[in-house]
Write a structure and sequence with these properties.
358 residues; alpha+beta; five-stranded antiparallel β-sheet; globular; binds flavin mononucleotide; binds the ligand C=C(O[C@@H]1CC(C(=O)O)=C[C@@H](OP(=O)(O)O)[C@H]1O)C(=O)O; Chorismate_synth_AroC_sf; aromatic amino acid biosynthesis
């Protein structure tokens, strides 16, 4: 399995959901960055499991232990290694799942690829748990970007068919910073209760729901990115698709742009003093693969959690028979609320990586 990534910043992700620990090694970070560990703790808490009924009941503190690369709270330039211990594993829940493949999870393709040796417990290395170290790396990236005036923030755009508002063209740094201070951010404060009800309803029916997350990155200067293979879209998408359960990524108005006329889709330029702006931001701040100075805006869609306890049809790879499966164990009835900070983190890592002068 490969879990290495990076052009400028380098990431190496390690661990399994029911192993001793999970973690990340971040290479090529600048030396001399003072990390705000309280803020990192808050970002980790936004994602951590076991905090309420919307989440898996598995309780993990997600305390980060820094193993290298930090001295007196300041990065030394050596690889920054962060480790998070696993403490609340119920591995018995997975005994049957070595043979009976969960529909929608990684079990079957992983069984084929790793000849049955892959660790299925808690999803092993495929688990959403591996997003905890990503949030650590993302929090570090966000702090470095903030020193350059670049702010990343996201909100829950929808849960099933309950929708929040969308980012407007005039979104500010303060708006985004406010979102990152909320555990489950929405733009319209009334909508989250409805979303919570939809999640609870699914949970009571032994089912799950998905949704979308909208993310913005403000103050990326015009001129970042390249046409073709290293466009901003091409650079961020692999990171965003690496988040387990993400099934689509779209920039600006995405698919909806295909329904517009040219005069509706184009973002018309104007000067505000010396600054070049566009009246609308249908292209999500990127044209020709390159930032145009407007907020970079994208959406990710997250599927319903695959592990549900309703009876489902599947196969037993040991007996080679069709069978029925009733999954026991602890699962998120909806992944979206805990994934907001994961999406912000991937965005921050991707943009930082593209900035050659870090
Ligand atoms: C934060 C987070 C939490 C998740 N929690 C669960 C869970 O409790 N149960 C589950 O079956 N899948 C969960 N997933 C999704 C699975 O890990 C994912 O669907 C699986 O690895 C297969 O990958 P794919 O959906 O990208 O194909 C979670 C994902 C994330 C990002
Ligand atoms: C532990 C976390 O989420 C886990 C992600 C996950 C999966 O299949 O992705 C399955 C569940 O694992 P377990 O059966 O061990 O409880 C979730 O709890 C986490 O996000 O920290």
């Amino acid at each position: 399995m490969s879990a290495n990534w990076g052009n400028n910043i380098e990431l190496s992700l390690f661990g399994e959901s029911h192993g001793k620990a999970i973690g990340i090694v971040i290479g090529n970070l600048p030396a001399g960055v003072a990390l705000d560990m309280d803020e990192i703790r808050w970002q980790m808490k936004r994602r951590a499991p076991g905090q309420n009924k919307m989440s898996t009941p598995r309780v993990e503190k997600d305390e980060v232990q820094i193993m290298s690369g930090l001295l007196d709270g300041v990065t030394t330039g050596a690889p920054l290694c962060a480790m998070i211990e696993n403490s609340d594993q119920h591995s018995k829940d997975y005994s049957l799942l070595k043979e009976c493949m969960r529909p929608g999870h990684s079990d079957y393709p992983a069984y084929v690829k790793y000849h049955g040796y892959n660790d299925v417990r808690g999803g092993g290395h495929f688990s959403g748990r591996l997003t905890a170290p990503i949030v650590f790396a993302g929090s570090v990236a966000k702090q470095i970007l903030r020193q350059k005036g670049i702010i990343v923030g996201a909100h829950i755009q929808s849960i099933k068919d309950v929708y929040d508002d969308s980012f407007g063209v005039d979104i500010t740094c303060e708006d985004l910073q406010q979102l990152t201070k909320q555990q489950y951010p929405t733009l319209n404060s009334d909508v989250f209760l409805k979303m919570q009800n939809v999640i609870e309803d699914a949970r009571m029916k032994q089912d799950s729901v998905g949704g979308t997350i909208e993310c913005a990155i403000i103050n990326v200067p015009a001129g970042l990115g390249n046409p073709f293979f290293d466009s901003i879209e091409s650079h961020l998408s692999p990171l965003l698709f690496s988040i387990p359960a993400v099934k689509s990524v779209s920039f600006g108005m995405g698919e909806k742009m295909s329904e517009l006329y040219g005069h509706e889709a184009n973002d018309c330029y104007y000067y505000e003093g010396e600054k070049v702006k566009t009246k609308t931001n249908h292209n999500g701040g990127i044209t020709g693969g390159i930032s145009n100075g407007m907020p970079i805006v994208f959406k990710v869609a997250i599927k319903p959690t695959p592990s549900i306890s309703q009876v489902q049809s599947t196969i037993n790879v040991k007996t080679k028979e069709n069978t029925k499966l009733e999954i026991t164990g602890r699962h998120d009835p909806c992944i979206v609320p805990r994934a907001v900070v994961v999406v912000e983190s991937m965005a921050a890592i991707g943009i930082l990586d593209m900035m050659k002068d870090i």
